Input
Amino acid sequence: MNKSTTLIAGGAGYIGSTLVNFLLKKNHKVICLDNLVYGKKSIIPFLKKKNFIFIKQDIRDYKKVKKIFSTYKIDYVVNLAAIVGDKQCKTISKIAYDTNFNGNTNLFNSAQECSVKKYIFASTCSNYGIAKPNGYVDEKSKLNPVSLYAESKIDSENFLLSQINKNLEILILRFATAFGVSFRTRFDLTLNSFTYEAIKNKKVGVFAKDTWRPYVHVKDIARIIYFAIINKKKNNNIIFNAGFTKSNLTKEDLAKKIVNILPKTSLNFDPNITDLRTYKVSFRKLENTFNIKQKYSIDFGIKEILLNIKKKLLTENEIKNNYLDRNCLNLLRFYKNEN
Output
C-alpha cells in the first residue's frame, strides 16, 4: 500500500512542526516547505527520518512552488505558512499580506494544476473580531476583522471559496487561539506567556480581563488537521471552526486557572488597556462531523509548560526569543532587504 504524501507549508513553525511529528508517527510521507524565518531548530529531529523531506522555499515564489508540485506526487496540502499575529503583521504589513494571501493563492493554484486530492487552509477565529459576549458565533456568523492578520485570512478564505470544484476538495479551518509546547514553542500566545510570567515573576499582568477567546492545544490542532486529511466524506460546507466549545474562557478565567496550579501567583488587572476583540465560538460542527473530542486541556497545557521549564527543556533564551517583541524583531531582520 502506497503511503500518502502531505505537503505542509510552514512545517517548521509552531503548529507545523507538531503536525510533522504527528503525521510521521501515522506513517505519512511529509514534505516540509518553509523559508525558516524562525530558524531550523524545530525540524532537526526529523531530518534523518526516511519519510521526511525538507525544502527551503518562500511560498510567494510561484515558479519555484509550482516546480515542487511537478517534482513530487503530493496527495494533500496543509497551508500553515503565514505571518501570524496582529503585531507581527503590522510590523511587516506588505510582506505579511503578500505571504498570507498571495502565498496561499500560489500554493492552491499549484495544487489544483497537479491533481492534489485535498487542500487544507489554516484560518483563524480572529476573523470574528468583535462579537456579542452573550452568545456563540458559528461558521455562519458575521465576520468583523479588526486586524490586518484577520483581513488577510478572510481574503484568502474568499479566494478559496471562489475556487470550489469537483476535483480538489477544500477545507478551511478557523483555529482557536493555540497554546502548549511544540518543537518551536511560541510565547506570544496568551496561555503560554501568562504561564511563563507566573513561573518567572509569580505575577501575571492581565488587560481586557472580560474579553472572551477559545483556546486549543497545539497537539489537538495537529489531531484536527489529521482528521480533516483522512475524512472521506466530502462536505458541501467547507468552513469549520477548529477547537472545542468547552474551552471558551475570558482572560480572567484563564489567569485564575494558572493561579489554581501556581497558587503563589498574583494577578494584576490593568483597566487602562482595551482590546476590541471578544468572541465565544461554537465548535459543534467540527466536533460532530469529525467525531473528535478534546484530548489536551488548558490545565494540561499549563502543567506541560511548567514541567518543560523545570526540566530545562525550554530554556530562558528560547522563551525570550519567542516572545512577541523578539518575534517582531526577528521578522524585521529576516525581511530587512524587502521591508
Observations:
- The two ends are 47 Å apart (CA to CA).
